[in-house]
């Protein structure tokens, strides 16, 4: 590891970053609201289309702070400047693909313009390998595309959204000397801590959903269902924080030492989005169950419950593989996850009342948590 990388290991999340994350508490809550009840395919698609740009903005700003540190006034100023843009995206999200799509686009442009100054200043340093065209392309060009899309009617607007994100993805895929330098500088502790804190935000939204649903339906069956739902959330948190973060630290460290840029990029920028999306849709299904515990879950809530659990474990399996864990070791816990979802959770969500379906999901996640604990005792690598 380079000297810069060794020094980066001391970098931990600061209070200013935690303040910055408050806007994402609102963003997740607003976007998750559209999945309550009986969401259809369009509702799930809307959630993913609007959640990914918000996640993408967060992870890019997180990496910016990882490289520059959070203690300096310039970085803190950048975070403050970016927060209103993210807030605008959150406020526009309920109609983010319709009447407020223009505002959502302007919020995305705002975030990119806010980050430009730091990266441009670094590119201008004589001792830096980062070419000036990269921050210009990644921040100004893509921000300009988002801004222009605000004036373009649907569906052309969404083509421009895809183009803007596509340009950023292509730039990340391009390997340059500056790319190696930046990946060497990344603090693994900070990466794991920041992604873990984002997961905390999503888990917190899950608990909030359960409590609000119980508040609105203050009955014995709803309370019992909320308690079972809380067990589901707590068990997912246990799997992630007791074993997932340890595996992530180890895997990212190996990837950085071997300069496996693609593995680091995928496991930090792309795959956690699948994981947090899974937790979010699970929470929506649990809230629906608390609303009507003695009824059967509607089809959309069944998809959310079963698909969310599957997404959570699929993301973890994919991250394990990107870290270089042997496929056989990953399959030892991923195959049971697939089997329990297919054989237990799917039939339960269809045949049983909502409270019982949530109870079965708690049992499934508990069994998989025990399997994760057993895997950890055997010192098997994983996420």
TrEMBL record:
The chain crosses the membrane at residues 18-35, 41-63, 75-95, 101-120, 132-152, 158-183, 195-214, 226-246, 267-289, 301-319, 331-348, 354-372. The keyword Transmembrane helix applies. Keywords: Membrane, Transmembrane, Transmembrane helix. The keyword rRNA-binding does not apply. It comes from the Bacteria. InterPro entries: Low_temperature_requirement_A. It holds the Pfam family LtrA. PANTHER family: BLL5714 PROTEIN. This is Low temperature requirement protein A. It comes from Kitasatospora camelliae.
């Amino acid at each position: 590891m380079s000297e810069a990388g060794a020094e980066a290991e001391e970098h931990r999340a600061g209070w200013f970053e935690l303040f910055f994350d408050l806007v994402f508490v609102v963003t997740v809550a607003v976007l998750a609201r559209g999945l309550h009840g009986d969401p259809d395919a369009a509702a799930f698609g809307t959630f993913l289309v609007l959640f990914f740009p918000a996640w993408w903005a967060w992870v890019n700003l997180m990496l910016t702070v990882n490289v520059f540190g959070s203690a300096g006034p310039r970085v803190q100023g950048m975070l403050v400047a970016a927060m209103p843009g993210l807030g605008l995206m959150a406020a526009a999200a309920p109609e983010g693909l319709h009447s407020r799509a223009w505002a959502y686009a302007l919020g995305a442009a705002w975030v990119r313009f806010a980050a430009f100054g730091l990266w441009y200043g670094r590119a201008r340093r004589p001792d830096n390998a980062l070419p000036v065209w990269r921050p210009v392309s990644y921040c100004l060009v893509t921000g300009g595309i988002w801004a222009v899309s605000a004036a373009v009617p649907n569906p052309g607007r969404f083509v421009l959204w895809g183009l803007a994100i596509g340009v950023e993805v292509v730039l990340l895929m391009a390997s340059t000397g500056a790319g190696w330098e930046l990946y060497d500088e990344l603090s693994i502790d900070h990466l794991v801590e920041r992604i873990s804190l984002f997961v905390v935000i999503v888990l917190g939204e899950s608990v909030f959903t359960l409590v609000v649903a119980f508040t609105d339906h203050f009955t014995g069956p709803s309370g019992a269902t909320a308690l079972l739902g809380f067990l589901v959330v707590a068990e997912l948190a246990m799997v992630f924080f007791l074993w997932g973060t340890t595996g992530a630290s180890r895997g990212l460290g190996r990837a950085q030492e071997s300069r496996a840029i693609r593995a680091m990029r995928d496991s930090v920028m792309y795959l956690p989005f699948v994981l947090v999306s899974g937790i979010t849709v699970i929470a929506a299904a649990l809230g629906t169950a608390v609303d009507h515990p003695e009824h059967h879950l509607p089809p959309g809530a069944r998809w959310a419950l079963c698909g969310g659990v599957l997404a959570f474990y699929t993301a973890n399996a994919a991250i394990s593989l990107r870290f270089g864990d042997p496929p056989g070791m990953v399959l030892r816990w991923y195959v049971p996850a697939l089997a329990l979802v297919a054989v237990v959770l799917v039939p339960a969500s269809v045949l049983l009342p909502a409270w019982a379906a949530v109870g079965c999901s708690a049992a499934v996640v508990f069994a998989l948590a025990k399997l994760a604990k057993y895997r950890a005792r055997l010192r098997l690598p994983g996420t």
